Amino acid sequence: MALPLADCPVRAGFPTPAEDFRGERLDIASLLIEHPHATYLLRVAGPSMREYGIDDGDLIVVDRAIQARHAHIVVAMVEGEFTVKLLHCAGDAVRLQAGNPAYPDITPQENETLEIWGVVTSCIKRFAR
Q1: pTM to 2 decimal places
Q2: What are the angstrom distances between the C-alpha of 13 and each of 8, 53, 93?
Q3: What is the pLDDT of residue 1?
Q4: Which sequence positions are flagged as catalytic?
Q5: Which pLDDT does position 66 carry in this prediction?
Q6: What string of H, E and C letters represents the secondary structure of 58-95?
Q7: CA distance 32 to 23
Q8: What pLDDT is attached to residue 17?
Q9: pLDDT score of 24
Q10: Spans of all domains in the chain
Q11: Closest listed residue to residue 1, CA positions, set 34, 25, 27
Q12: For the domain with range 35-124, which CATH number is right: 3.60.40.10, 2.10.109.10, 3.90.650.10, 3.30.470.30?
């Protein structure tokens, strides 16, 4: 679905009526999704990533085609459970950092399974209905 893109920046206000959407149309899906066959939407449960702007109830766009790197926000499967965290890599060591000091970071031990499932590329928030 393509939506009109206003041809002026928003400075904490609305475009003037004289500039009434004379710009291009923007397809939301193409803006958010680079690899359609490898992209999923997941709903976030809990506040562990709030300091990174990801809140309880948000939708995150997760691309499984992107190679995860240090400092990416990722969805990982740890011991069979999904979690969203900031990826820290130092040599062979991996740590999943929470974005809330009330939640511990995850440093997988040798006997634990960890799979980086995908990279979070966007977060969709809903402010009003």
Answers
A1: 0.84
A2: 11, 22, 46
A3: 65
A4: 48, 85
A5: 98
A6: CEEEEECCCCCCCCCEEEEEECCEEEEEEEEEECCEEE
A7: 19
A8: 60
A9: 81
A10: 1-32, 35-124
A11: 27
A12: 2.10.109.10
Contact 50, 68 (CB under 8 A): no
Burial 74-85 (b: 16+ CB within 10 A, else e): bbbeeeeeebbb
For residue 118, give the nearest of 74, 71, 72, 83 by alpha carbon: 74
Instruction: Report the distance separating Cα 72 and Cα 119, nearest Å.
Output: 7
Instruction: Report how far residue 75's alpha carbon sits from residue 118's, in angstroms, rounded to the nearest whole number.
Output: 5
The parts of the chain modelled with pLDDT lower than 50 are none
**Contact of 74 with 85, CB cutoff 8 Å:** yes
